[in-house]
Each structure stands twice: as C-alpha cells, then as structure tokens.
Automatic annotation (TrEMBL):
Residues 1-22 form the signal peptide. It comes from the Bacteria. Keywords: Signal. Residues 10-317 form the Porin domain. InterPro entries: Gram_neg_porin_domain, Porin_dom_sf. The lineage of its organism: Bacteria, Pseudomonadati, Pseudomonadota, Alphaproteobacteria, Rhodospirillales. It comes from Thalassospira permensis NBRC 106175. This is Porin. Gene3D superfamilies: Porin. SUPFAM superfamilies: Porins (SSF56935).
Length: 343
C-alpha cells in the first residue's frame, strides 16, 4: 500500500511540476443550510418513560473554493462548520483535485460507499432509513442500509463518468487522531482533553460502483457499495427508477460482524413531484441479530417550495422496535413540520 501511495504521489507531483503561477488564487465562497423543526412524538417505552420533544434544528455553514491550473487541473477545498455542537465544530474538511483522470479527495470526509450509495426516495424531515426518527423518539438501533464508517481522515478516488457509470475507492486508517476534540462535562463545566485517539487504527477500505442516466420518459439510478474494516464487512445495493412525476426505489444492506450475528436492512420508497410540491411514502426494516433488535418504520412526507432556497416540509411517522427484553420494546408515532433553508 505504501508503494502504491508513493507512486501515486510521484505521478501527481510530475503532473503539477513546472506550472506557472498564472492561475487565480483560491477565493472561498460561503454556503450552507438551516433546518428548524417543530413537532411531537408519542411512544410507549416502559424503560425510559417516553420522551416528548417540541423542537429540533440542524444548521451548517460551509466554505468552498478552487482554482484551475494552466494544465486544466482544478484544485480546491471544502470546509463545513456545524452550527451547534458540543464536540466537533468542523464536520468535514478536505481538498479535491479534478481532471480528466477523475477526482481525488483527501481529508476528513465520508467514504465513497456512503456518498455513492443509492437508497429509496424520500420526502420530508423524518424518514425511517437513517432519516431522523431517533431525534424524536428513543431507539435502541437506527435502521441504516448504508452503515458506513462516517467522517474519517481518508483519501478517495472517483473515476470519470463513462456513459453514466462511475466507480470509487476510499482508504482510511480509523485513527481519529485529528479533527476531533474530546470534551468531558463535569459539574456543569467542560474540560477539553485534546485530540480524541479512540480510533483503533484498523484500515478501512471502501468501494462503490454507481450508474445514473436519463432516458426517453424515465430515469435510472443504481449502486453497489461495500466497506471493510479489520474483520468486519458490510455491503449493499440500491435502485431508483423515475417515470413521469413518480420515483420508486429501494435499497438493501448487510453487515457481517466477524463471525458474530449479522444485520440485514432494507428500505422502499415512492415519491410524486408536481410543480413546487412533492409527496413521498417510505418504509424501512432492520433485523439486528447481534443485539437482538428488530425494528421497522413508516413515514409520509410533504415538501413545498415557497421560494428560492426556502422549503416547507412535514412528516407523519410511525415506528415499532422489538428489543431484547419486553421492557426495552418501543413503538409510537409523531408529527413534524418546519422550514428548510439553503444558501
């Protein structure tokens, strides 16, 4: 692996060698989003007594910028800042290199398996497949058909798009040695202990192949993705088909926990878009044999574009979770509405 990385670095260095400084300096632009939600949830959790929520929010500001060298290669950076957090203020930060050879990303970012994975179509702020149900109710496990390793310090490569086909591969070491701050709260005060080195250092290798294309009267999106960390593996696949104003699709994910009990999950969804409005129905199911948790969820969502970058969204959701021991079982429903702003 070291020889491969060294050779790749040498190739990149030769490509950049001798470049004049005629390119424009990198100037950062600002973007981001803000989501503010109001709602309620009713659940039957005898272990915790239930939880009532009134509001949820998610805000992020990101900075992006790039420059194009004289040889046509684009180099840039992206930095994402969380609007509210108790630990990691920087969500993702990475540099990218674009050219006829494809795209290279290096920094703290999602894997290609995460970014290229296709899941069932959804509408609204709450969806059963890793879509915010856990923000409103108590769940022992979150349904997730793309259970990737999340933000890690990694390098990723994406091939050029060939007739709708694209492939990617990522490598990380799960060190978490930078980009994270370990904060401990004691007696109402916070003690910053420095870098969190809780990662185990195991290599994380991710891969994905995706296809996306529009035809006469319909569109098609496909993905096959997977990830390996030490002896643990997960893999999945997804498909979306669009025709007229409808989009239907789903995805499947399987986790192989080093000879222990496995996890299987799938989701299904259908959406209908009409002018500024869209509506969607989504269902997801997961059987976690390792922790003996079986859960499922259903959501009906509505979104209406009020103006440029302003969307009113609502969800009505239901869930049912059967965990080990009757005291841990939980089921219920909720209603959420609010505004999503993008800028």
């Amino acid at each position: 692996m070291k020889k491969i990385l060294f050779a790749s670095s040498a190739i990149v260095a030769v490509a950049f060698a001798g470049q004049a400084s005629a390119s424009e300096p990198i100037k950062l632009s600002v973007g981001g989003y803000m989501e503010q939600w109001a709602g309620f949830a009713d659940e039957d959790n005898t272990a915790t007594g239930g939880r009532k929520n009134a509001f949820q929010s998610d805000t992020e500001v990101y900075f992006t910028g790039s420059t194009t060298l004289d040889n046509g290669i684009e180099i840039g950076a992206r930095i994402e800042l969380e609007g509210e957090t108790s630990t990691d203020q920087v969500d993702e930060q990475f540099l990218f290199v674009n050219g006829g050879f494809g795209r290279i990303e290096m920094g703290k970012n999602d894997s290609v398996a995460d970014s290229m994975g296709v899941t069932g179509p959804t509408v609204g702020p709450v969806n059963p497949n890793d879509g915010g149900t856990e923000d409103w109710v108590n769940l022992a496990k979150v349904i997730d058909t793309v259970p990737s390793s999340g933000d890690q310090n990694r390098v990723s490569y994406f091939t050029p798009n060939f007739g709708g086909f694209q492939a990617g591969v990522s490598f990380a070491d799960n060190s978490e040695s930078n980009g994270r701050v370990n904060v401990v709260t004691t007696a109402g005060s916070q003690s910053i202990l420095g870098s969190d080195t809780s990662g185990n250092g195991d290599n994380i290798v991710s891969g994905a192949i995706a296809y996306s294309n529009d035809f006469d009267g319909f569109s098609l999106g496909l993905s096959v993705e997977g990830e390996n960390e030490d002896e643990d593996n997960w893999y999945g696949a997804g498909v979306n088909v669009g025709f007229g104003n409808f989009t239907v699709g789903g995805s499947y994910g399987h986790v192989d926990n080093d000879g222990e009990e496995d996890v299987d999950a799938f989701d299904l969804g259908v959406t209908y878009a009409m002018d500024a409005a869209s509506i969607g129905l989504s269902y997801a199911y997961q059987d976690d044999e390792e922790d003996n948790v079986e859960n499922q969820g259903l959501s009906l969502g509505l979104a209406y574009t009020l103006g440029a970058g302003v969307s009113w969204q609502s969800s009505v959701f239901w869930f049912d979770e059967d965990a080990a021991g009757s005291a841990s079982d939980n089921d219920g429903y909720g209603v959420v509405t609010g505004l999503a702003l993008s800028f």
